[in-house]
Write a structure and sequence with these properties.
Blueprint lengths: L3 E7 L2 H14 L3 E8 L3 E8 L1 H14 L4 E8 L5 H5 L10 E7 L2 H14 L2 E8 L7 E7 L1 H13 L7 E8 L3 H7 L1
Antiparallel strand pairs: 1-3, 1-4, 2-3, 5-7, 5-8, 6-7
Length: 182
């Protein structure tokens, strides 16, 4: 059962592999995603019971030995966040599209969770820094008012302050936009 989501983001690829292994060995957690991203960073995202995720993230933080960029533990994470990180969410209908850019991988996950909890939207993807110069972004869809409310909630979140780039809401997107997102 996934009650919590945890993540460590480090500025060293070799140490990132070590942190990932340490996190997985420290507690009974499930690996959601890990890998190398732009700017020479490595991230690991795990899920599980809150206490296990906290233990895994803390063990990884200790192993990071001065190269930790950021970390997070989100208890009661919205269940749509993990599939969006893995880009497993599909849609054939875009009512409105919200796009939120962040300067941190952890901030993108915080933003996605806040958006999903704030309004009736569907998370499409949480892109964590690959090919983006270290930036990340969140794609979501829903009715225009819901997408606006979700984006505003993410931007107001304490954990995203100073880490949000530009956000846009696109009402009635062109049908070709969906194809470009897949």
């Amino acid at each position: 059962m996934m009650d919590a989501l945890g993540m460590n983001e480090v500025m060293s690829i070799p140490t990132g592999f070590l942190v990932c292994d340490t996190m997985l060995k420290a507690a009974n957690v499930t690996l959601i995603s890990s890998g190398c991203v732009c700017a020479g960073k490595y991230y690991t995202v795990v899920s599980g019971e809150v206490a296990a995720v906290q233990a895994a993230v803390e063990a990884g933080r200790k192993m990071a030995q001065g190269v930790l960029v950021d970390s997070l533990v989100i208890p009661n994470v919205d269940r749509s966040v993990a599939p969006a990180i893995m880009a497993c969410t599909e849609t054939d209908d875009l009512k409105a599209v919200g796009v939120m850019e962040t300067y941190s991988l952890c901030a993108a996950i915080h933003a996605a969770d806040a958006a999903a909890k704030a309004a009736d939207i569907r998370l499409l993807e949480v892109r964590l820094g690959r090919g983006l110069g270290g930036k990340s972004f969140v794609l979501l869809t829903g009715e225009v008012a819901a997408v606006k409310a979700a984006v505003e909630a993410a931007e107001a979140l304490e954990e995203t302050q100073g880490l949000m780039g530009k956000s846009v809401v696109i009402p009635a997107p062109h049908p070709d936009l969906l194809r470009s997102m897949q």
